[in-house]
Amino acid sequence: MKKLMIINGPNLNLLGKREPNIYGSLTFTEFFEEIKEKYSSIQMDYYQSNIEGEIINKLHAVGFSYDGVILNAGAYTHTSIGIGDAIKGIETPVVEVHISNTFGREEFRHQSYISPNAKGVILGFGLQSYELAIQSFL
């Protein structure tokens, strides 16, 4: 059985409440339950933190034992050399995802410290971005 870890960064705990015109009205917990049921042949785990170091620690913890990581580092995508280095240091492939099209937003969101070390990048498809990332590991 494949093991996938979904890691969400800062403010993604507010999905369903935060800017529903950009992020939708579904909470991530509701969405996660849906995809776990849909992809029941995969062991999927979920972790969310607003703290950069905790995200790095989680990458280190799963980065040698999971088949894949789906990472939405939120705003840390554009600021965290540490998260980018953590991805470079682990063996597990990481797919970077974003709910919104970051290139259609503020210019500072066009830079990613995750992308150079990621297996791939999926953005702009709403929560379906996560499903596309799951499918990339199948």
TrEMBL record:
It comes from Allotamlana fucoidanivorans. Pathway: Metabolic intermediate biosynthesis; chorismate biosynthesis; chorismate from D-erythrose 4-phosphate and phosphoenolpyruvate: step 3/7. CDD domains: DHQase_II. Pfam families: DHquinase_II (PF01220). Keywords: Amino-acid biosynthesis, Aromatic amino acid biosynthesis, Lyase. The active site is at Y23 (proton acceptor), H98 (proton donor). It catalyses: 3-dehydroquinate = 3-dehydroshikimate + H2O. Catalyzes a trans-dehydration via an enolate intermediate. Substrate binds at N72, H78, D85, I99, S100, R109. This is 3-dehydroquinate dehydratase. It comes from the Bacteria. The lineage of its organism: Bacteria, Pseudomonadati, Bacteroidota, Flavobacteriia, Flavobacteriales. GO terms for biological process: amino acid biosynthetic process; aromatic amino acid family biosynthetic process; chorismate biosynthetic process; quinate catabolic process. It is an enzyme of class 4 (lyase). Homododecamer. Gene3D superfamilies: Dehydroquinase, class II (3.40.50.9100).
